[in-house]
Design goal:
This protein is α+β, with helices and mostly antiparallel strands. The protein has one domain (about 5-140): Sufe protein. Chain: A (Alpha-Beta Complex), CATH 3.90.1010. It is about 40% helix and about 20% strand. Helix 1 crosses helix 2, helix 2 packs across helix 4 and helix 3 (about 85-95) packs antiparallel against helix 4.
Length: about 150
């Protein structure tokens, strides 16, 4: 295993074991459930958006290390982002995880720790579930969403 693979593995394990954004917001503006029926991941995002900017966000639920790490890293990236920026991050992350070109103007930061997941096709949905749930939340979905990516 290369040094970079070890670093990425460490980030994923750390974020899944001790996530910084696990919990529930009191009185969130948006609450959205997401499920991955293929592996059993379930999560709920709660978001506080004021004046078009993500002020706070949390997630709860259960799932694999990849899903939890992706959710936690996603919420790091979204804090202080506009809704439009959140959508851009989501599109860029999904492009990266599918091995497609990522816009060069976006810095995905620690989210790149999940880039290698694209080689594990069965786990791609685990990594994209938080993002699909975010998109549904921003689109005003009602009821749980499933990542059929």
């Amino acid at each position: 295993m290369s040094l970079m693979e070890q670093i990425y593995k460490t980030v994923i394990l750390e974020r899944s074991r001790t996530p910084r954004h696990r919990g529930v917001l009191d009185d969130p503006a948006i609450r959205q459930e997401g499920v991955n029926p293929s592996c059993g991941d379930e999560l709920t995002l709660s978001l506080r958006i004021e004046d078009g900017v993500v002020q706070d966000a949390k997630f709860e639920g259960h799932g694999c290390a990849i899903s939890a790490a992706s959710a936690d890293l996603m919420l790091d990236a979204l804090h202080g982002a506009t809704v439009e920026e959140a959508r851009s991050f989501s599109a860029a992350f999904k492009a990266m995880i599918r091995g497609e070109p990522v816009p060069t103007h976006l810095d995905l930061g620690e989210l790149t720790a999940l880039e290698g997941i694209r080689h594990l096709h069965a786990r791609v949905k685990c990594a994209t579930l938080p993002w699909t749930t975010l998109e549904a939340a921003l689109d005003g979905a009602t009821g749980p969403v499933s990542d059929e990516a």
